[in-house]
UniProtKB/TrEMBL annotation:
<dbReference type="InterPro" id="IPR051681">
    <property type="entry name" value="Ser/Thr_Kinases-Pseudokinases"/>
</dbReference>
<feature type="region of interest" description="Disordered">
    <location>
        <begin position="312"/>
        <end position="356"/>
    </location>
</feature>
<keyword id="KW-0808">Transferase</keyword>
<comment type="similarity">
    <text>Belongs to the protein kinase superfamily.</text>
</comment>
<dbReference type="GO" id="GO:0004674">
    <property type="term" value="F:protein serine/threonine kinase activity"/>
</dbReference>
<dbReference type="InterPro" id="IPR017441">
    <property type="entry name" value="Protein_kinase_ATP_BS"/>
</dbReference>
<feature type="binding site">
    <location>
        <position position="73"/>
    </location>
    <ligand>
        <name>ATP</name>
    </ligand>
</feature>
<dbReference type="InterPro" id="IPR000719">
    <property type="entry name" value="Prot_kinase_dom"/>
</dbReference>
<feature type="compositionally biased region" description="Basic residues">
    <location>
        <begin position="345"/>
        <end position="356"/>
    </location>
</feature>
<protein>
    <recommendedName>
        <fullName>Protein kinase domain-containing protein</fullName>
    </recommendedName>
</protein>
<dbReference type="InterPro" id="IPR008271">
    <property type="entry name" value="Ser/Thr_kinase_AS"/>
</dbReference>
<keyword id="KW-0547">Nucleotide-binding</keyword>
<dbReference type="Pfam" id="PF07714">
    <property type="entry name" value="PK_Tyr_Ser-Thr"/>
</dbReference>
<feature type="domain" description="Protein kinase">
    <location>
        <begin position="45"/>
        <end position="312"/>
    </location>
</feature>
<keyword id="KW-0723">Serine/threonine-protein kinase</keyword>
<dbReference type="GO" id="GO:0005524">
    <property type="term" value="F:ATP binding"/>
</dbReference>
<dbReference type="InterPro" id="IPR011009">
    <property type="entry name" value="Kinase-like_dom_sf"/>
</dbReference>
Amino acid sequence: MLPRESKGIPWSPPPKPQITLLSALYSAIRIYPANSSLHDCEIRLTKLVPVGQGGYSDCWVGEFLGCFKVAMKTLRAFIQDDVAKRRLKRETNVWSRLDHPNILPFIGQYVQGPTIYMVSPWMENGDALTYVQRSPDANPLQLLAQVAEGLSYLHKERVIHGDLKAANIFVSHSGHACIADFGLSEFLGGHEVRCSTEWYVAGHPRWQAPEILKATSNEEARRTKETDNFAYGRVMLELFTGKVPFFYLSGDTSSVLLMVMRGEFPERPTDKGTAVKGLDDNMWGLMTDCWNIDPASRPSAKHLVSRLQAALRAQQPLSDANGGSSSGDSKSRKRPRSPRAMSRGPHKTKQLKMST
């Protein structure tokens, strides 16, 4: 953590009694009694350079209430103002209303000059793909079950994620997976009409469903529950292998595009390591079901939850027989809290889970 008075970052001491009380309260019960607008006394940047970059955004490190490490996401400076405003409004509108253990919590917005930051808990293990690459003991089935729970919650609340991939799933210190990045998300049946090129061309064909790539208009390319479920199958492949779909076509986007449009699948991994991690015929079959070229034939998110939970139960006796415990252990699985009504807006008290 940088010294508060160093590195040239402007910072004013907070009113200590109030911040100390809020910090203690937040630490104890993970509730922050405030609206979504954060002020200088509540949050600050702790680094002058971003620690991560996405297609349109940068991620910075900050400090919340004087002691909590947080991620501060902002859109890239070169994006046109009107485009940036639309994306920020859309992401904030969707993200601030979500409340589930497998959705990255939204803490609030912080405005510093012309820059708007979206603030969330810092996830110590980074994104899910990096996590499985660096952690030999990571349990892909457990992570995938958690992601399926989060996706099922989104669809139940009539939210389409629109950009599901392992890079947009983050893992806490305790190995808990949370879906993030709602820049392409929308509410089903919403009145917002997508007409912008930035939305139409967004995403990468490695994770996109064929119907999106074949579309000739924005309306035809509209994301759906079925395109989310297609992308979930790609996430399964990523977490079992530690590699992006079609990794063997690195840099050859046009070939990937044509293969997906023709309904062709990525190659099935044949190494023993993936089998040990749970990629058996059952899971490969579920993946290919997700990739069905007919959207109506793909499994629902609710069905994905059921299949992954069954796979975890089947994995547990094997762990017990080996004298160890799996991260898919029933003791380590937490059922999601009942979702709050979607009518709860960003200006009401929020219950958040910081990474542990």
